Amino acid sequence: MVDVKEKENLQLREEVIRDFIGASKDLRDFCENSVEHYRQELLNHELTKETRETCLKNFIESVQRVNPTVVALRDADVQRGKAMLDIIAFLQANWGNWEYKSESGELKFNREKLTDEYNQNRQALDEIIAEMQRLQAKAESLRTQAH
Predict the structure, then answer these.
(1) What is the mean pLDDT of residues 78-105?
(2) CA-CA distance, 53 to 48, in Å (whole number)?
(3) Which is more confident, 107 or 143?
(4) Does the pLDDT at position 69 exceed 70?
(5) What is d(CA 64, CA 106) in angstroms, rounded to the nearest whole number?
(6) Cα 120–124–128 angle (5° rounding)?
(7) Which residues, 6 or more positions from 135, have their beta carbon under 8 angstroms from its beta carbon?
(8) Average model confidence (pLDDT) for the chain?
(9) Tell me: the pLDDT tens digits for 109-121?
């Protein structure tokens, strides 16, 4: 928050987060439909039916264990973006009632109620981040087991 000097700085962050959410949704959807994408790509090449079926079977076997976790991770990206937007909206709505303390790296609010509301928003974000870390570790473990 060091560089947030004007309300417009928050609007710029909001735009970046919205772009992040859009890209995360696209990536999640691509991963969720990866088998169909691969199937379609195989049709674009001059392969025998048997070769296509073998390639598709091998692809499905390679992604079926880890892909649900990857899709969940990408969905958590979307949820993280939405939680970040909630924080930005909260800060915009309460502009002038908070300041960033660079010494401590914390936001300070002029009313305890606002501090509590901010902390609730921040806790929701932290819980999503913790879930993402759990999913990332699970995906890595599944990838390692596959090899």
Answers:
(1) 95
(2) 9
(3) 107
(4) yes
(5) 43
(6) 165
(7) 69, 72, 73, 76
(8) 94
(9) 999 999 999 999 9
Give how far Cα 65 sits from Cα of 10, 25, 30, 56, 141, Å.
40, 21, 16, 15, 11
Residue identified by tokens 């004007």 is 6
Q: How far is it, in rounded angstroms, from Cα 7 to Cα 15?
A: 13
Length of the chain equals 147
**50/34 Cα distance (integer angstroms):** 20
Cα–Cα dist 67/41, whole Å: 18
| pLDDT one-digit tens code per residue, 121-130 | 999 999 999 9
Q: Hey, what amino acid is at 20?
A: F
* Tokens of residue 32, six digits: 């969720």
Say how many C-beta atoms besides its own lie within 10 A of residue 78's C-beta.
18
pTM equals 0.86
User: What are φ and ψ of residue 110, in 5° steps?
Assistant: -90, 0
User: Is 133:141 a contact under the CB 8 Å cutoff?
Assistant: no
pLDDT of 147 over the 90 cut: no
